[in-house]
Amino acid sequence: MTSAANDIPSDFDFLAGEWDVANRWRTDFLDATSPWEEFPAVSRASRHFGGGASVDEIEFPTKGFAGLTLRLYDPERAQWSLYWSSSRTSTLFPPVVGRFTAGRGEFHGDDTHANRPIRARFIWSSITPTTAHWEQAFSADGEKTWVTNWTMHLTRRP
């Protein structure tokens, strides 16, 4: 979706506000057979630059850390770059880059996990005014196989 006024998409406008987040992550992000762990979070997101930027902070009270995501839209490439930082490291991870098509956002990037080079994939889907779904997957074999290792189901706070 694009704003006619300045050709900036409204892709992440849905995220503005406060959300309760049900998280599931694998105990080993590279092992598809490792068990899932579930935990809560609260996310607060805001829209900036006329929709060309989105920022959210997510707090994981039972895990003792928080995260911050910065999303920036590049109109020349017609794509988003998503940057994640954790309060555990206070550094920006390499971005995942991509776009929305038919209400589904898919973003890819190069990173490392447990000292191994990986390809990361984020997917935003099932977006409604009150819910959304996010998932992360890693590939350690050049995108031949993916291990979905973290999912979030977001429910808007009233």
Brief rundown of the structure:
The protein has 158 residues and is mainly beta. It contains no helices and 10 strands.
Q: Can you give a write-up of this model?
A:
- This protein is mostly beta strands and 158 residues long.
- The protein contains no helices and ten strands.
- It has strands at 17-26, 36-48, 53-60, 65-74, 79-86, 96-101, 104-113, 116-125, 131-139, 147-156.
- The protein has a ten-stranded antiparallel β-barrel with strand order 1-2-3-4-5-6-7-8-9-10.
- A hairpin with a 7-residue loop joins strand 9 and strand 10.
- The two termini are 25 Å apart.
- The model is unreliable at 1-5 (pLDDT under 50).
